Amino acid sequence: MQTKNIRNFSIIAHIDHGKSTIADRLIEYTGTLSKRQMEAQVLDTMDLERERGITIKAQTVRLDYQGKDGQMYQLNLIDTPGHVDFTYEVSRSLAACEGALLVVDAAQGVEAQTLANVYMALEHDLEILPVINKIDLPSADPEKVKTEIEDIIGLDTSDAVLASAKAGIGIEAILDQVVAKVPSPAGDRDKPLSALIFDSYFDAYKGVIALIRVMDGSIKPGMRLKMMATHKVFEVTDVGCFRPAPVNVGELSAGEVGFVAGSLKNVKDVRVGDTVTYADNPVAKALPGYRGINPMVYCGLYPVDSSDYDNLKDALDKLQLNDAALLFEPETSMALGFGYRCGFLGLLHMDVVQERLEREYNLKLITTAPSVIYHVYKTNGDLLKIDNPANLPPLTEIDHIEEPFVKATIIVPNDYVGAVMEISQDKRGEFKNMDYLDVNRVLIKYHIPLSEIIYDYFDRLKSSTRGYASLDYELTDYQTSKLVKLDILLNGEPVDALSTIVHVDRATQRGRQLAEKLKAIIPQQMFEIPIQAAIGNKVIARETVRAMRKDVLAKCYGGDITRKRKLLEKQKEGKKRMKSVGNVEIPQEAFMAILKID
Ligand code: GDP
Ligand code: MG
């Protein structure tokens, strides 16, 4: 297809503003799938995902659309992962586009991730087309939202599409604006190949599939290509596009978006952000912006049943096939035995991996509390990068410790400014500035330790602002903080997997709260269990789990059978995820207790 008839665009939005629903309507309206097929398609995808344990990303889709000028256009809709964990992937997807639909909920207005996404789209010089969605809602106020977009973002909204993805309003207008306003891609099909990888996945039959945007040149089956960052050379077996199921085409040329498959078996060879070129006639320079993967959050994963250790390794290997951002290496804990230390892009990524390991691979796991990477400067001049609190050297060997900080952007209604400040201060945040977005909403910026963000910051923000706060953050720097390791001893024995790194000013309080919390979580056993919190050799808190009375059922006085059954079930439930540490049975919740303290 001639580049003048190609349009490459993304949809950007704050979560729940209707990105996916609009994408569905565009697919439907252009006849790419019928309504009935759409439902079938969604189900198929989920089945496949379950069967093969892979994520099929069909959201990048090619639409054929006849414009008002009577010409046929190839519209490539490139999906972006919405979550803050995947910011880099979003940025690569945007680098593959010339335009973006900015979807804003007509009842909610501009939110933190609306802004974050817009800034990213502006960095890539994209043409941004505002779409005000959900105008069917009784609480919709499109005029107010337009004003917000103009005032806060500085975009002209005189042509903004007023849409309801739910009611199917404004869909044709969106397509017409994409054709009229998004620039056609530049690029020359006769130049040597350069194509940007913006996503990848593993297919059991075809191996690794790279999603690409061809900048210059063209790709056909049989060609020998090279990845510029990983140096991997491969022969192309398939090229194609998504409709939204993968469909082979004869060629992908300059300006087009699609997939390429070849002799690629490992997602690590196919890195998002890398450039694909000819193996024999490569371009001199890779496309800009390539970055390696840096996990930000680490935790330990241990099988409840130690005989599952090999199964856990297999499962992690399989997940990694499709997730180059997942890192893991063997780790041994005195308390938990053999397991893996895993690195993730963020908390959502961590949750997704844990859930898949448990659901798809039937593993029962003990997960330790997530940790950031600390830079520990030792008195002998060494720098250690520590992602497991248990590995912190003794106090006497530490000169100082640095921890990662983020710039957090919070948007809330005026009434909640006090609440946001209180929580942020409590989380060691440093107030940066505050801007009024309009008469009743404010944007607040804080410089805040990442470790505090991963400890329930967002949950607390949400709950104390009745769900109105929206949050976005990005890593900015490492700074020195006065940090110490808080140890927990059960029965006089330190439990390494319960150690955490805390700020010295909060250490005593955290130690007390954690000991109390553990007392509530650890079930009574036949003997008394002392719980101690300690910093170095100094015990700062002590609690005791009393010994169990002989018979749990004794208090039921024989009569009530359902109550008895409930008690027994509760006991069984509790048994599910226990790990014996020494002779103490510790449930999963104990390892996460530190996250639940406020
Ligand atoms: P995303 O997170 O931006 O992808 O948002 P979704 O497309 O998943 O939509 C979030 C929720 O808003 C879903 O429950 C949709 O059904 C609903 N929704 C999307 N578009 C509209 C709309 O135009 N009107 C109304 N009333 N609801 C909508
Ligand atoms: Mg969605």
Task: Please describe what this structure looks like.
Its main location: membrane. It is found in: Cell membrane. The protein is α+β, with helices and mostly antiparallel strands. It has 13 helices and 32 strands. The protein has a six-stranded mixed beta sheet with strand order 2-3-1-4-5-6, sandwiched between helices. The protein has a six-stranded antiparallel beta barrel with strand order 7-8-14-11-10-15. Strands 20, 21, 22, 23, 24 and 25 form a six-stranded antiparallel beta sheet that branches. Strand 26 and strand 27 (493-494) form a beta hairpin. It binds guanosine-5'-diphosphate (GDP) and magnesium ion. Magnesium ion binds at residues 19-20.
- Low-confidence stretches are 48-58
| The named CATH superfamily of the largest domain | P-loop containing nucleotide triphosphate hydrolases
Overall shape: globular
User: Which percent band covers the strand fraction?
Assistant: 25-35%
Task: Average the pLDDT over all residues and give the rounded result.
Answer: 88
Largest sheet: number of strands, sense, barrel closure: 6 strands, mixed
Question: Order of strands across the widest beta sheet?
Answer: 2-3-1-4-5-6
Count of beta strands = 32
Estimated radius of gyration: 27 Å
CATH architecture of the largest domain: 3-Layer(aba) Sandwich
The CATH first-level class of the largest domain comes to Alpha Beta
Helical amount: 25-40%
In this entry the ligands are: guanosine-5'-diphosphate, magnesium ion
Q: How widely separated are the two ends?
A: 58 Å
Subcellular location: Cell membrane
Protein name: Elongation factor 4
Pfam family, one: GTP_EFTU
Enzyme class: hydrolase
